[in-house]
Amino acid sequence: MRHRISGRKLGRTRSHRRATLSALSVSLIQHKKIRTTLAKAKETRMVVEKLVTRARRAVSHEGDGKPKDVHARREVFAFLRDRSAVSALFDDIALKVGTRPGGYTRVVKLGQRRGDGAEVALIEFVDYNVGQAKSAAKPDKKAAKGQGKSESKKKTSAKSKKKETAGAKGGQKAEDSAAHEAESKGKAGKS
After folding, report:
1. I want to staple 26 with a disulfide (CB 3.0 to 4.6 A). Which of 38, 50, 85, 142 is the partner?
2. For 14-139, which CATH class?
3. CA pair distance 137, 133, nearest whole angstrom
């Protein structure tokens, strides 16, 4: 039985698992979004949430004119082992999620991987959701443009465009066949 045992082993030794989670955390902090297996994404989420909370608390205690919380930065660096990731976490991410009480990341299932059938997921920071912001803006522009036309007019204009393109292709085919016939008659007359 697994009562009160948390975490996934991920088929690795303790040191290998720690290195894997550290590398995934650094990638997530730098790129704000990564694609990995579902089990690794869920484990990475647990680790990154704690790191962001640690950074957020340190930044809030630093305040106006107070010195940097070097101890917190060193604790985070002991796990991440990447200076640029630590500075991005404390300088950028911690400031952006300053008011959020938790839930800094989300895991979105993407289905199964083609090669081995593993469950694949996307883990991303909630506040850095750039892709959905752009896609949400696009339908608004289309809706504003299409307010003048009714649905029936849209359908008829689409049908007429299809007919025009089909007619143009048909006319082109007729011209090609007429040219081919003329060419074959010319060859027959010469022989």
Report:
1. 85
2. alpha beta
3. 6
